[in-house]
């Protein structure tokens, strides 16, 4: 499948106003693509579109619609010569998925099937999907490579694995389809401009936005969920990866979609672990701000350690993370201190 010789290929970015989606729009623009943003604004705001315009020096068309709206998708594919779809739009709170599994299966699985059907009918053969390390479940060995067993422990993780299965089956049925699932480990950080960042609605589930909101005075203190894990300092270890490294990983994946076919999955991580206390101490060092915390009970479902083996993405996508934990936390702080209430 050859890349058309059009100057700036149009790619549809579902969830393009979200955290990873918006940062990926910056990387796409810088790589010469034209992102067409498709977002229902359920967990983002139109203000993000303004920030994108400031960073990129141009506006991207925004279609405010549901991924599950077949008619809206048909119209979009009629209006734009879409070369590929990057599918970020999904619900992603693990705890919420346990409480409301059907909402997760409807949004993340059924709506993705509608998207893939409309893509097929429109002759769009290239898909990059935002998957997650939660498809692996509890680590059986470390670091985790793409052959690790898939045993999600929550409906969110299952919903990601189910979409991967749909992509495998669709590529099996249509041999010139090209689908890549990117399994993120722990996305953190913000664009260097400080104009984009992790902007969760409500109380953050994730560590880094909770740390930055505590540092900026939005939260009283951080609760560290257990310091009795089997790790050097007793707190949980994760593979944090800069959101701009992730964004660039999607551009690398798109490049592949013009020269290969079938279904492929890649881990996007650094291969390096950091504990909760590593994050807190590094953040305090780079920001000069104290992060008061107390040790709380373990959070159900948490594991001690999870770290990616990033070797396959390096070999096949020529991608590897280049930003370290200090950079991740400095950029997160730059964003949060500019926008204490988010945008
Ligand atoms: C990191 C570490 C916590 C908050 C989740 C999802 C995963 C993916 C990334 C979507 C752990 C500790 C956290 C806090 C804490 N999301 N922690 N206090 O759980 O590794 O992964 O986000 O794809 O699907 O599972 O990330 O940031 O929630 O936790 O002590 O207030 O920080 O125990 O050790 P996690 P996290």
Automatic annotation (TrEMBL):
GO terms for molecular function: UDP-glucose 4-epimerase activity. It catalyses: UDP-alpha-D-glucose = UDP-alpha-D-galactose. One of its GO terms (cellular component) is cytosol. It holds the Pfam family GDP_Man_Dehyd. Its EC number is 5.1.3.2. Residues 12-330 form the NAD(P)-binding domain. This is UDP-glucose 4-epimerase. The lineage of its organism: Bacteria, Pseudomonadati, Pseudomonadota, Gammaproteobacteria, Alteromonadales.
